[in-house]
Design a protein that fits this description.
The structure is a single chain. The chain is α+β, with helices and mostly antiparallel strands. It folds into two domains: 239 residues, no CATH class; 195 residues, no CATH class. The chain has a six-stranded mixed sheet. The chain has a five-stranded antiparallel sheet with strand order 9-3-1-11-12. A three-stranded antiparallel sheet has the order 6-7-8. The longest helix has 14 residues.
Length: 460
């Protein structure tokens, strides 16, 4: 296969997407242990936005980044030779972070309590509580780097952001009396342009279903009684690596906000499976870089059929009150899986840039083959220092635009009624109820040329 640097922009970009490049997340040492987490709800970072209410945000642990170098016993006046004999307060054991308690001393830490420890594990859920008064007190600290939340940046950290938090153990007296061991020191967004797409590998270590998440949370609480009050065992999180090809995608409204609802995503429903997961419309469009929600649903419908969709979700019965699902989450589409219909050997690519996805679309007139068309146009003269704007964290734009060295690479899905449909492939059919409510233009209506709307679809 030719080097991507020697190929035209379209071919180079497609081959790059097929490799499913990931982001190298930053690592660094500090006094306290560091964890990667994500937040279930938006986190307010400005005093004026709190009002009279509390901002209560559950956060799920994704992975352990570093154990830190805090030790006990410790005091600022301790001699270096004695400090060398101190024991670490945090250690990494497999995927878990083990925190040890210590004896409380005036202005210092006493000996480490070896038999008073807890394991912080991927999937653990902690809760951040913040109101205007607490935020105001935090702002009185001179050193902004020690603030619990970032200051001077974005006013709100969106839900499902990739965050880095620092945690420290509490002293033995507090842990044994209050059953609280984990003290969250700081919460920071990893990078405003880095999303959970970068953390798919550690996300896969989370429970694979809601039932498993509840079971794992209950067992962890029993095994780590010293952190019983730290853990939130109701708002648990889980990760589904591959959505079933018969899943249903539709656009719904919950309390005036639009969500993309995914249901029937599990192959075997044993009565305990989650029925639906809601995804915020803006998050869905951003994850596929689609200006139109119709385009985003087009892509997701085909991606689900091909087995290229995964998602992370969190559970909270509160969301059901407004007509929503009890689960909300963030969806991911694997470029490598989605683009398997494109050969690696560019010499075999058709001249018109059209590839067969292996899916059919039936708008009532019979199945039509779903094709993927790729083209590019030069938008501006590339500069010497221009960077590829299609980052690994937003790995593709289908249908939409991916920029690379002055070119826009367009990916479009279209239905071809001239291409014969093949048996035993995924087929789409319109939901009759949706068509009746929305009128003749819902699903199957011609938009531009041969491109079709695949809106409000269910599997046949």
């Amino acid at each position: 296969m030719a080097s991507t640097t020697d190929l035209p922009s379209t071919q180079a970009l497609v081959l790059r997407l097929k490799r499913d490049l990931g982001v190298c997340l930053p690592r660094g040492r500090s006094r306290h242990a560091k964890l990667y987490v994500f937040n279930h709800r938006p986190i307010i970072c400005e005093e004026s936005r709190f009002g009279d209410s509390w901002n209560i945000v559950p956060i799920t642990v994704i992975s352990v980044q570093d154990a830190g170098f805090a030790k006990a016993p410790y005091s600022k006046t301790m001699q270096k030779n004695k400090l060398s004999l101190a024991k670490p307060l945090a250690e990494i054991h497999g995927d878990n972070l083990r925190l040890y308690s210590f004896i409380k001393m005036p202005m210092a830490k006493g000996d480490r309590v070896d038999d008073a420890s807890v394991d912080v594990a991927p999937g653990n859920v902690f809760t951040l509580f913040m109101d205007q008064n607490k935020f105001r007190q935090m702002m009185m600290v001179t050193d902004k780097s020690t603030h619990l939340l970032p200051t001077g940046g974005e006013p709100v950290i969106p839900a499902f952001s990739l965050l880095e938090i620092e945690v420290a153990p509490k002293n033995h007296q507090s842990a044994s009396e209050k059953m609280s061991m984990v003290n969250v020191q700081t919460i920071r967004r990893v990078d405003i342009n880095t999303t959970l797409q970068s953390a798919l590998t550690p996300l896969a270590r989370l429970p694979s279903s809601l039932t498993e998440a509840h079971q794992r949370a209950a067992k962890h609480a029993c095994d780590n009684t010293l952190m019983a009050r730290d853990l939130e065992n109701n708002c648990v999180a889980f990760f589904v690596e591959k959505v079933h090809h018969e899943a249903v995608i539709e656009l719904v409204e919950v309390k005036g906000e639009e969500f993309v609802r995914l249901s029937a995503w599990e192959a075997d429903n044993d009565g305990t499976a989650v029925e639906a997961v809601d995804f915020a419309r803006n998050d869905v469009q951003r994850c596929v870089n689609a200006a139109s929600i119709d385009h985003a649903l087009n892509l997701l419908s085909v991606a689900v059929a091909i087995g290229a969709v995964s998602f992370v979700a969190v559970h909270d019965p509160f969301w059901e009150r407004g007509g929503g699902a009890q689960q909300r989450g963030l969806m991911f589409v694997a470029p490598r899986k989605l683009l398997e219909c494109i050969p690696d050997d560019v010499d075999t690519w058709p001249e018109d840039g059209v590839f067969d996805t292996g899916c059919d679309y039936d708008n009532g007139d019979g199945p039509q083959r779903i094709e993927l068309k790729i083209s590019d146009t030069q938008q501006f003269a590339p500069q010497e220092n221009d960077q590829d704007l299609c980052t690994p964290d937003f790995p593709f734009c289908m249908p939409g635009v991916a920029c690379s060295r002055g070119f826009t690479c367009n990916f479009n899905l279209r239905a071809n009624d001239k291409a014969p449909a093949e048996p035993d492939v995924a087929r789409f059919s319109c939901n009759a109820d949706v068509v009746q409510r929305a009128g003749a233009n819902a699903g199957g209506a011609c938009v531009v040329g041969a491109k079709r709307k695949l809106k409000s679809m269910e599997w046949a």
